[in-house]
Structure formats: structure tokens, C-alpha cells
UniProtKB/TrEMBL annotation, chain A:
Organism classification: Bacteria, Bacillati, Actinomycetota, Actinomycetes, Streptosporangiales
Family: Belongs to the binding-protein-dependent transport system permease family.
Coiled coil: none
Subcellular location(s) per record: Cell membrane
A Gene Ontology BP annotation from the UniProt entry: cellular response to sulfur starvation
The organism's place on the tree of life at top rank: Bacteria
Transmembrane segments: 21-43, 63-81, 93-113, 133-162, 209-227, 247-268
Organism this protein belongs to: Nonomuraea longispora
Protein name: ABC transporter permease
From TrEMBL, chain B:
Protein name per the record: ABC transporter ATP-binding protein
Keyword ATP-binding: yes
A single GO molecular function term of this UniProt record: ATP binding
Keywords: ATP-binding, Nucleotide-binding, Transport
PROSITE patterns per UniProt: ABC_TRANSPORTER_1, ABC_TRANSPORTER_2
InterPro entries to which the protein is assigned, alphabetical: AAA+_ATPase, ABC_transporter-like_ATP-bd, ABC_transporter-like_CS, ABC_transporter_ATP-bind, P-loop_NTPase
Residue ranges of domain ABC transporter in the record: 2-236
Record flagged with keyword ATP-binding: yes
Organism: Nonomuraea longispora
Length: 285, 256
């Protein structure tokens, strides 16, 4: 009992100091960001180069181009609705499809020792191929357009999810399996209550990689001919009219999107894997 | 209740490093008995327990639980493993851990929860249901594992060095807990340990195994006054005599 009391106290202590440290680093992070932006502003103004517009000009451009719309559309302009939303839609659909396929196939492969042994080499090979190299294959198969873009995004992101999930499913604690076996749990119960939860930490590592990769390949798929909307399209469009603030606006928007999506992902991960992180923190000396 | 006939098990049979873990082991356990199995480390105790639980298939001989030959895990059998931290599921609350095995017992959610709470009460953890295993001390985690086995209402409970990973004080508490719960639940218990004192203190009967390949070298009845008590039982002349005898049997076969 005394031991557990000490444990709780320690956990509380760890909790408060971590929270304090968290607030301090968060504040510091904003200061660093602000300073960097100010330096960027000063340098670009001094240089006065057409190729590098100052950040204020980029933000202004982003505002007029995308976020100065009527309140009814949440201030989004027609250009935003026509370009940002299709991009997000492609990315979401591609990520969802690829992630689902990766999880399902990954579990199947990971749970069968022979399947894993036979397929491991092939899967590593497929993962190693840089997706852009396969674009022509996808064009031949699907032609230009949405179908090709979705297939391309799914194919590109499925590997990290699949391989990580398979790895996680293979490394379920043997004593957990023996415990389930000795209590004669059904295969479905075993899969749902034990195998999937123990796979989650690795699955999430794969999903996080897939998320950042899906942003990259989404933009890449929009740079191809046959695209008529999307952030990638907007960037090529701005390039063809030598509209440099337009190009930069697209770049900054993609950076912000990537950051926000990653933060959202971390929120979900903390919810799903709270047990994992706490257990690891307590296990650390 | 449990009969073991001429059991033997060889790991890696035919290969150059084949290992005979058990050879010609015979044992019979009566219903309601608390049997302790002691033996030198690495003598094949865990192999024996895993064979009874149907987790491994022995290479020779036969095990019968309630008359049925064990081919897979028998009904109404529960195992408490030594390593509680790897046997409990860290993503489930304590109550969910205890209730999980009840899912195949045709109980609805409310009854599962009640049974789990009841089992937690019987191990003195009535307030721990909503916590997670890693929030508890080692001894409390092993109590949760015992509660999980009890909630399942087994007729045969196997315990594999259940107190091997806790400190001495907790160990004594858990020994007394096992003695207490066996009174409330009608079940047979087979407890494996390498601790000679523990085997005599807890058991109705102590079976001593030889070093690997394991077979039975001693079978002693423990007739100590009930209820057993950590202080007075351990100073009882019969206790002192029995532990010496078990010690000789274990040692004799550990050093040959």
C-alpha cells in the first residue's frame, strides 16, 4: 500500500513538472517562430527580390485569394472552395483507403507466420520504390484524373501502414497469447481485444508516416497534366503566369496543412494510446 | 481430478541440442487438493504446468483432467503466471482485465461486471477496478491476475511460480490470500514454486521433482494445524521437519 501511495505521488509530481515544462516550451516555440518570421520579413524586404516576396505579402495574398470570402462559406473564397477542398478530399480519401487496406492486409500478413516469411521481401521491395517513379504506370492503368490520383495516393501510403501493422501483429506478447489460450477466448475476441490493441502503437507509427506522405503525393498527383483544381494545380497555375506570391501562398498553405494535420493526429493518438504512453513513462527510471 | 501418466516431453527432438524436460512423470491430484510442486530451477516445472494447461502438447504420456484427456486447454481451468506484468493487458482497466475471460461464459455485461467486482473484493482490491494495471504495485497486479482466475470460477487453478516476482512481505500476504480464497471457492490448486518453505506452508501435499528430465522423487503429505499462520506455522516442529525433508529431496537431486 505504501508503495502504491509513493507511486501515485510520483505520478502526480511527474504530471505537474511535465505540464509546467510543456507550457514553457510551447511559449518558447512561439517566440522562436515569431523571430524567424520577422527575420524572413526583414531579409526579403532588404533584398527586394521578385522571387522571394516578404511573408507579409504572402499572407496578404493568401487572405485575398482564399480567406476573404463571405461569412456564409466561413470566409472561404470561391478559389479556396475550388482548390483547397478538392485537395483535402483527395488526401482524405486516399489516406482512408490506403490506411484501411494497410491495416487489414497488415494484420492478415502479421498473424500468419508463413505469409510474413514469404511476403516480407516483396513488401520491402514495393515499399522501397519511390512513388513518383510509378506515376507512368498509374497513368497507363487509370488515365489522367481523379481515379488515377486516388489509386496513386493509396498505393504510396499503404506500405508504411501495412509493414508496421504486420510487425506489431507479429510481436504480440507471447504471455498475452497464452493467457487468452488458457481462458479459451475465441479467435474473434483474441483479435479484437488483444491483437489489435497490442498492434496499435506500431500501427499509429505507420499511420503517422502515411499521413505526411499522403500530403506529399497528393500535391504531386495534382502537378500532373489533366488536373483542373487543387493546391498543387494552383501552384502550377501561378507558375505559368509567373505569379510568385501565388506560388509562395500555396507552399505556405501546404506547410500549415501538414502541421495542423500532424497535430490533429497526435491528439487522436494520445486518446487511443494513453495507456501505452503512461505505462512507458512509469517504466522509465 | 487430475491424473498424469508416464508424461515425458522432449524439446527439439532429433536435433543435436534436444532437451529432455520431463521423463516418465506420474502424478495424481484429488479434487479440492492444494498441491505444491517444488523442484530445482530449470527442472521442467513450467513445462509440466503448460502441458496440464494444454498450452503445449507433450511428446509422450497422457494427462487427464476430470477424466478427459487434455488435447487443448480444458474447460474450467485457469492459469496464474509468474509474470503478472506481461499477463495482464495494459490497455484494459483492472475490471476489464478480470471480466475478459467471462466473455465466453454466456454472461451479459452487467453480470460480468458484478462477477469481476466480486472477485476483486475477494482479493482485497474492491476500489481498484477503474485503474490500469500499471498504476498498481507488483503485488497488487498479481492479486488482479488471481482475481481474474477466480472470477472465471475454475475447478482447477494452476499457478506458475505466482509469487516469484514480488518482495518477501507481499509474498507472505499473497500466500495467505491463496489459502483464504481456496476456502471460498471449491477448486483444486496446483502451485509450482522453487521455494521450499512456501511449498510446505501453502500445500496440503508437496511433490518434489528431480532435476531435468523431471520425474517425481518425493511425495509428502503436509499435516499442519489449520488455519495456517505465517509466524506460528513456520515455527511448528512438523513444519521445520517437513521443510528439511523437502530440502534434502530437492538438493539431493539438484547436485547429482
Amino acid at each position: 500500500m505504501r508503495r502504491s501511495g509513493a507511486r501515485t505521488a510520483r505520478r502526480r509530481e511527474v504530471g505537474t513538472t511535465m505540464r509546467l515544462r510543456g507550457v514553457r516550451t510551447a511559449a518558447f516555440r512561439w517566440v522562436v517562430l515569431l523571430v524567424l518570421v520577422l527575420v524572413w520579413e526583414a531579409v526579403t524586404r532588404l533584398a527586394g527580390s521578385t522571387f522571394f516576396p516578404p511573408p507579409s505579402a504572402i499572407v496578404l495574398r493568401m487572405h485575398t485569394m482564399w480567406f476573404s470570402g463571405p461569412i456564409g462559406t466561413l470566409f472561404l473564397t470561391d478559389a479556396a472552395v475550388e482548390n483547397i477542398l478538392p485537395s483535402l478530399g483527395r488526401m482524405a480519401a486516399g489516406f482512408a483507403g490506403g490506411a484501411l487496406a494497410g491495416v487489414v492486409i497488415g494484420l492478415a500478413v502479421g498473424l500468419s507466420a508463413s505469409a510474413y516469411d514469404y511476403l516480407d521481401g516483396v513488401l520491402q521491395f514495393l515499399r522501397a520504390i519511390p512513388p513518383p517513379a510509378l506515376v507512368t504506370v498509374f497513368l497507363v492503368l487509370f488515365g489522367f484524373g481523379l481515379r488515377m490520383q486516388l489509386a496513386f495516393i493509396m498505393f504510396s501510403i499503404v506500405w508504411p501502414v501495412l509493414l508496421n501493422t504486420a510487425d506489431g501483429a507479429r510481436s504480440v506478447e507471447p504471455l498475452h497469447l497464452q493467457t487468452c489460450q488458457s481462458f479459451r477466448l475465441s479467435r474473434a475476441e483474441l483479435l479484437l481485444r488483444v491483437v489489435v490493441p497490442s498492434t496499435l502503437p506500431k500501427m499509429f507509427a505507420g499511420l503517422r508516416l502515411a499521413l505526411s506522405l499522403s500530403l506529399i503525393v497528393m500535391v504531386f498527383s495534382e502537378l500532373l497534366p489533366g488536373t483542373t483544381n487543387g493546391i498543387g494545380f494552383q501552384i502550377t497555375d501561378a507558375y505559368s503566369t509567373f505569379d510568385l506570391p501565388g506560388i509562395w501562398a500555396g507552399i505556405v498553405l501546404l506547410g500549415v496543412l501538414g502541421y495542423v494535420l500532424n497535430e490533429l493526429f497526435l491528439v487522436v493518438e494520445r486518446r487511443m494510446l494513453g495507456w501505452h504512453h503512461t505505462a512507458q513513462q512509469l517504466a522509465a527510471p | 481430478m487430475l491424473e498424469i501418466d508416464n508424461l515425458s516431453h522432449v524439446y527439439g527432438g532429433g536435433s543435436p541440442n534436444e532437451h529432455h524436460a520431463i521423463d516418465g512423470l506420474n502424478l495424481s491430484v484429488a479434487a479440492g487438493e492444494l498441491l505444491c510442486i517444488v523442484g530445482p530451477s530449470g527442472c521442467g516445472k513450467s513445462t509440466l504446468l503448460r502441458s496440464i494447461a494444454g498450452l503445449i502438447t507433450p511428446t509422450g504420456g497422457e494427462i487427464r483432467v476430470e477424466g478427459d484427456v487434455v488435447r487443448q486447454t480444458p474447460d474450467n481451468l485457469a492459469v496464474v503466471f509468474q509474470d503478472y506484468s506481461r499477463s495482464l493487458f495494459p490497455w484494459m482497466s483492472v475490471a476489464d482485465n478480470v471480466a475478459l475471460p467471462l466473455r465466453r461464459k454466456n454472461m451479459d455485461k452487467r453480470r460480468r461486471r458484478e462477477a469481476a467486482q466480486e472477485a476483486l473484493e475477494s482479493v482485497g482490491l474492491q476500489d481498484a477496478g477503474r485503474k490500469y494495471p500499471f498504476q498498481l504495485s507488483g503485488g497488487m497486479q498479481q492479486r488482479v491476475a488471481i482475481a481474474r482466475a477466480l472470477a472465471y470460477r475454475p475447478t482447477l487453478m494452476l499457478m506458475d511460480e505466482p509469487f516469484g516476482s514480488v518482495d518477501a512481505q507481499t509474498r507472505e500476504d499473497l500466500e495467505d490470500l491463496v489459502l483464504k480464497v481456496r476456502g471460498h471457492h471449491q477448486m483444486t490448486i496446483v502451485l509450482i514454486t522453487h521455494d521450499i518453505d512456501e511449498s510446505v506452508y501453502v500445500g496440503d501435499r508437496v511433490v518434489v521433482l528431480s532435476k531435468a528430465p523431471a520425474h517425481v522423487v518425493g511425495d509428502l503429505k503436509v499435516e499442519l494445524p489449520a488455519p495456517r499462520d505465517q509466524i506460528s506455522t513456520r515455527e511448528h516442529p512438523d513444519f521445520v521437519h517437513l521443510r528439511a525433508e523437502v530440502g534434502r529431496l530437492v538438493r539431493g537431486h539438484a547436485t547429482v
